[in-house]
Amino acid sequence: MDWRYENLDKAEINGIEAELRLDFNKSSYGYLNYTYQNPRDKKSGSRLPDVAAQKGNAGFNLALGRYINANANLLVVGPRPRDSRDWREKVSGYKVVDLTLIGKNFFKNLEIRGSLYNLFDEKYADPEKYTAPEQRRMPDGILLKLLEDDYPREGRSFVLEARYRF
């Protein structure tokens, strides 16, 4: 059987992505990447909603001796336009910094990670999908309330994890 993946509603996204990585030694490096994309609906030619045209990452991984690595990452995402029928302002872009401390090689096959996500507690959200008024009615005629707020993303959080390889 021949499987083929195809975009729904004939979406087409053209763009460019560039990445730069600088190795300091075997376990330490820095990186930058940038993406520009132009998402379009193939049928109408209009700009696809809810997709940022620009995003990028910058970060580093630093070996702090034989047993500890530190990783820092900055994610920057540009604003996301809404559906042309949606009356709300575009969804703002955001910047999020994550930090991870990794303990490894101190016990065979065990790795301990402590990650602090959204270090500066950036308030940001993912866009709520536009629903046309005629699609908000239930079969019995009741009008569903349109969610006017976007989906809030998690604020600052901490995750501690242990990984053991068998």
Describe how the helices and strands are arranged.
Layout: E1 11-23, E2 29-41, E3 54-63, E4 68-77, E5 94-104, E6 110-117, E7 125-126, E8 151-152, E9 157-164
In brief:
With 166 residues, the protein is mostly beta strands. The protein has strands at 11-23, 29-41, 54-63, 68-77, 94-104, 110-117, 125-126, 151-152, 157-164. It has one domain (8-164).
Q: Any overview of this molecule?
A:
The chain has one domain. The protein is elongated and about 60 Å long. The chain is mainly beta. The chain contains no helices and 9 strands. The protein has strands spanning 11-23, 29-41, 54-63, 68-77, 94-104, 110-117, 125-126, 151-152, 157-164. 1% of the residues are buried. Helix content is 0%, strand content 46%. The strands form 2 sheets. The protein has a 7-stranded antiparallel beta sheet, with no helix packed on it. Strands 7-8 form a two-stranded antiparallel ribbon.
Core attributes:
166 residues, mainly beta, seven-stranded antiparallel sheet, two-stranded antiparallel sheet, 46% strand
Strand arrangement across the biggest beta sheet: 1-2-3-4-5-6-9
Q: Report the helical percentage.
A: under 10%
- Secondary structure category: mainly beta
The fraction of residues in strands falls at over 45%
The general outline is elongated
